[in-house]
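Retro notes (design track)

What went well: tokenization of the new backbones is finally stable.
What didn't: we kept losing track of which sequence belonged to which structure.
Fix going forward: every design gets posted as structure first, then sequence, in one message. First example under the new rule, 469 residues:
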């Protein structure tokens, strides 16, 4: 008992000693809460909330964050995707950009991309990490704009070398390890863009270190150079053996192929293998079960670098999320009468529709639900999740058309939308009577759902007849 109390005492002291304070003053943001996230890993990009700031009515905010290492964190708010680096045991005066909420058209546009920017830290020291990174971004953009033609059109090696020297001279050593990595991989990004013919060798003989997972330039470079490489290489003229290896779940062959072709160090080859498998799964060109099997192979799970197995587990969790044959997350939200409704209460297949009644296309799909109900009667439950809390406009719409479905409204946290990875509306899912996913995504009401569901019912009827004694 005494040992336990002593351990807890020193653990709390440790946390307190590593607490970083985030504070600031933003009157225009009064009443808003901004959540900051960090990645579980740079491949799955599953995000975890690291902390949040709540701006008080007078515009002030203050938050303590207990961390034991440096984190790259980010938040989406208004039209922005804000980024900054948080280190243990610091006090950071955070400056937010001018408040700019999304317009109606931006809110409804599924292709809208927020403005990416580094958030400013008010600090007199030029050695503050965020200030150094912002200065590096500015210098990088200035020089690449100035010599754009020589670098990107003419691809002149002497200009590439000159720009690299100018940047290095602008940021002389000594550097903190984090900034040294950011600077290194920012220069590699430039090199990969200018020397396209040698792009695949950008990680030649480089080792993978866990610390790189938080370095924004490293994450960016991996995406720029290696996204979709498994599909690309497997469909090249000499890619037959590689494609066969993927279909046969031959993890060693795939890993060794890329290690040799890209001249990778073993640790980097193991890391990038996970990137190739992740992207290959989503390409739709390979058997999903083969990819999942490779993520469970001894080369991955029993890798001496423990972090490889952890990242692989993250990727597998992401890949299997909402996969047909898996259990769907249960949705429990309130309807117009403020009664809680859940998606797992039916003993029939459930058709889930994520909708936004403020969009004309969604209204047309919702109107057609009546025809679907008439055709399938009591063989189907329809569950509609509205993007926003009810407004007079949406209330009038549902009252006028009397949509025959359970209609609920997403709360302010938008957690259901995040859980189901909803990017555009309408997006639909079909579940069986056990709440297991049949189709993800499923056809929308006006896009052929009836044909698919008719076929499903027919097959179910045939199977039931076969199973009768």
């Amino acid at each position: 008992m005494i040992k336990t109390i002593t351990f807890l005492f020193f653990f709390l002291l440790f946390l307190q000693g590593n607490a970083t304070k985030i504070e600031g003053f933003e009157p225009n943001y009064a009443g808003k809460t901004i959540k900051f996230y960090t990645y579980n890993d740079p491949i799955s990009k599953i995000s975890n909330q690291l902390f949040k700031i709540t701006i008080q009515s007078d515009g002030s905010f203050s938050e303590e964050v207990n961390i034991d290492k440096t984190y790259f964190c980010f938040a989406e708010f208004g039209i922005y995707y804000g980024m900054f680096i948080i280190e243990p045991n610091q006090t950071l005066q955070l400056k937010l950009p001018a408040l700019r909420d999304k317009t109606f058209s931006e809110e409804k546009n599924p292709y809208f991309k927020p403005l990416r920017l580094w958030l400013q830290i008010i600090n007199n020291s030029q050695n503050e990490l965020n200030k150094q990174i912002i200065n590096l971004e500015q210098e990088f953009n200035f020089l690449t704009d100035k010599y754009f033609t020589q670098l990107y059109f003419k691809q002149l090696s002497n200009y590439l070398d000159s720009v690299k020297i100018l940047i290095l001279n602008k940021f002389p050593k000594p550097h903190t390890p984090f900034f040294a990595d950011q600077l290194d991989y920012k220069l590699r990004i430039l090199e990969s863009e200018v020397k396209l013919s040698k792009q695949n060798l950008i990680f030649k003989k480089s080792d993978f270190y866990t610390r790189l997972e938080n370095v924004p330039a490293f994450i960016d470079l991996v995406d720029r150079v290696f996204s979709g490489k498994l599909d690309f290489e497997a469909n090249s003229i000499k890619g037959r053996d590689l494609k066969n290896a993927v279909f046969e779940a031959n993890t060693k062959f795939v890993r060794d192929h890329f290690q040799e072709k890209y001249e990778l160090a073993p640790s980097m080859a193991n890391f990038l293998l996970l990137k190739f498998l992740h992207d290959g799964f989503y390409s739709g060109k390979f058997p999903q079960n083969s990819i999942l099997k490779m993520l469970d192979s001894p080369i991955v799970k029993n890798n001496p670098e423990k972090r490889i197995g952890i990242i692989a587990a993250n990727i597998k969790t992401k890949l299997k999320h909402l996969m047909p044959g898996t259990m769907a997350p249960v949705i429990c939200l309130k309807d117009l009468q403020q009664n809680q409704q859940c998606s797992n209460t039916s003993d029939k297949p459930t058709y889930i529709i994520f909708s936004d009644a403020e969009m004309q296309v969604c209204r047309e799909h919702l109107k057609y639900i009546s025809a679907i109900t008439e055709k399938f009667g009591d063989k189907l439950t329809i569950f509609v999740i509205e993007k926003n809390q009810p407004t007079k406009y949406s209330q009038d719409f549902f009252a006028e058309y009397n949509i025959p479905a359970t209609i609920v409204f997403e709360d302010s946290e938008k957690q259901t939308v995040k859980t189901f990875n909803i990017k555009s509306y309408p997006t639909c899912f079909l579940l069986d009577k056990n709440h297991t996913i049949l189709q993800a995504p499923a056809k929308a009401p006006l896009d052929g759902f009836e044909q698919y569901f008719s076929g499903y019912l027919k097959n179910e009827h045939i199977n039931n007849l076969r199973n009768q004694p």
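Added context from the reviewer: The longest strand covers residues 47-54.
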